[in-house]
Amino acid sequence: MDDWSIDEVEARFSEAAETARRLPPARVMGYLNVWPILLRMAPERAPADDEVHHFPPSPAAIDRMLEVTRWVQWLDTESRHIVWMRADRCEWSQIARRFGCAVRTVQRRRKIALSIVTEHLNGVSEVAAS
After folding, report:
1. 36-59 pLDDT tens trace
2. How far is Cα 87 from Cα 97, in angstroms, rounded to an integer?
3. 110 within 8 A of 78, measured Cβ to Cβ
4. pLDDT, tens digit, 9 for 90 and up, residues 97-118
5. The DUF6362 domain covers which part of the protein (predicted)?
6. pTM score
7. What's the gap between Cα 24 and its chain centre?
8. What is the 3-state secondary structure (H, E, C) of 24-54?
């Protein structure tokens, strides 16, 4: 991209959070479950919640997610948490409670953090072009 906007950076953070959510869980290798598989009857299966299976993300989506994780190095720790929590669809009030400030303050800090990332991206693309 030649010129990044705050909306594009915000969309990329949201996509990265969704990609991270769709990654398979990390499991410890080498452990074995020796319990037999229980076949349940239909009435026993009815109250069980069906697990939602997500398709794994594409390699291109994972590359974009890793690119976004490099972007957060330009931010301080608190701004990183604010940006990631909002990208992960947390409510403003929940984020504000976590940081002990008003909702409007959290919104302002997030906007500043996204503008910092946007400025870095636009600066990097200008340097790469010359």
Report:
1. 777 777 666 666 656 666 788 999
2. 17
3. no
4. 999 999 999 999 999 999 999 9
5. 21-117
6. 0.76
7. 14
8. CCCCCCCCCCCCCCCCCCHHHHCCCCCCCCC
